[in-house]
Every structure is written in structure tokens, then in C-alpha cells.
Amino acid sequence: MPKENRLPRILIVDDELAIRRFLCTALDTGEFSLQQAENGHAALAAAVATKPDVILLDLGLPDMDGVEVIRRIREWSQVPIIVLSVREREDDKVAALDAGADDYLTKPFGVAELVARIRAALRRALQQVPEPIFRSANLEVDLARRRVTVDGSESQLTPTEYELLRLLVVHAGKVLTHSQILRQIWGVSHLEQPHVLRVNISNLRRKIEMDPSRPRHILTEPGVGYRLRSDGS
User: Fold this and answer.
1) Nearest to 120 by CA among 145, 132, 103, 134
2) 54, 10, 13: which is closest to 33 by C-alpha?
3) Is 46:37 a contact under the CB 8 Å cutoff?
4) Which residues are CB-contacts of 200 (< 8 A; sequence separation ≥ 6)?
5) What string of pLDDT tens digits covers the 233 residues of the chain?
6) Phi, psi of 203, deg, nearest 5
7) What span, in angstroms and rounded, lies between the C-alpha atoms of 59 and 162?
8) Neighbours of 131 (CB within 10 A)
């Protein structure tokens, strides 16, 4: 978690010097303190020694797979990890997110989008517990009172729909995989029943989205999972 008297530390992990230089140049705005690591072992050492506030991680490292780096870091730290990778397969994205990554961007990506994802990750890290009331555009979720309103009018959700929305609120801005959501809401017995999740997401969207066919709150990450939109993410 960044201290008030210092800039947030960003650890860039990539084996390609040109990419590290590009990211350092793109993020050299005076908003962050930047550090670099060229492989998995160097990344693990830097994570311990410097305690970064966000890690930008490539998966194709020369000494170990990036997913293994994520698993090792998650054994002792919840630092936000944003994967930056050329791997476009859904299986690769799911593996990284299930291992504990917070977000996943496929190369090439826009610098503005990357900065927005970093800022969102830093905000989540500062919120050790969710705010009692979540607001985004016309949606408001009062976690303490279990009350959901859209444009000021209360929306009646089933207990399962509310727990699903609450899970997304607690992790607002973060991609949650199908298996992560199924495990949390329905248990391990439903991990092979993604249709249960799709039906409930569809029902939930009908109750909180202005146009369920073009959702603005619950965003789909194709083949991976869902993300609840939060301001700036």
C-alpha cells in the first residue's frame, strides 16, 4: 500500500529491455516510482526487497513462467498484479487470473488504458475493506443495508443475485474468472456448471442495466469472466 509521503512503486517485469524501456518512458509522468526486473527470480527478489505497490508482469519469462511467479507472490503478498502479455488464449488469461493476478492486458495495449488499470489497482489496494456504499454512474449498492438502487429506485434482487453483485462490488474493477465466481457463490460442486453463472448474470443485468444487451456496469471478459465497472477502470 503506498504511503502518503512517497510515490506508488511500480515493478515492471519483462525480459525484453525494449519493452521495459517503453513502459518506463510511458509511465514516467511523475505519478509513479518505477523499478525493473528482467526475469522471474529477479521479480521475486524485488517484490520482497522493495515491496512494490503494483507489479506489471509479462508471462513469457526466461527462467520461469509468469503464472508461477504469481503463485509464489500470492503465498505471502496481495500486491496488485497486472499481467501484460502477448498470450491471447483464454486459457492463458484464466490461468493467470486464477493464480491470483488482478488484471490482464494483451499486448499491444494503449498507455492510457494501462494507467487507468494501475490507478484502479492502487485504489483497490487502499481499500482493505469495501466502502459501505458503492456508487458507479446510476448504480448504488449499500452493503450494510443490502440495498441496491438504480437511478434512485430500489431494485429487488434474489438472495443469489445480491451475493453475486456483492462479490463483484467487493472486487470492483478486477476481473473475476468464471471458476472464481462459481466457487465463491455456489461452491466447488458447481465449477463445471458455467450456465448457472450465465443465467444469473443475465437476470442481474436485466435488473440493474439500462440496456442489458449493452451493459455498462457488469462487463464481460470473453471466455474468462466478468468485471464490475468502477469509476476510472
Assistant:
1) 103
2) 10
3) yes
4) 160, 161, 164
5) 455 568 999 999 999 999 999 999 999 989 999 999 999 999 999 999 999 999 999 999 999 999 999 999 998 888 999 999 998 888 999 999 999 999 999 998 999 999 999 998 998 887 655 568 898 889 999 988 889 999 999 999 999 999 999 999 988 888 999 999 999 899 888 888 889 999 999 999 999 999 999 999 999 999 899 999 986 55
6) -65, -40
7) 35
8) 11
Task: Output the CA torsion sign for 189, 180, 218, 161.
Answer: positive
Q: Which residues contact 61 (CB under 8 A, 6 or more apart)?
A: 13, 15, 39, 40, 43, 69
Q: Cell digits for 61?
A: 519469462
Kindly report the pTM of this predicted structure.
0.74
- State how far the Cα of 154 lies from the Cα of 162, in Å rounded to an integer: 13
Contact predicate 180/98, CB 8 Å? yes
- What are the cell numbers at 207? 435488473
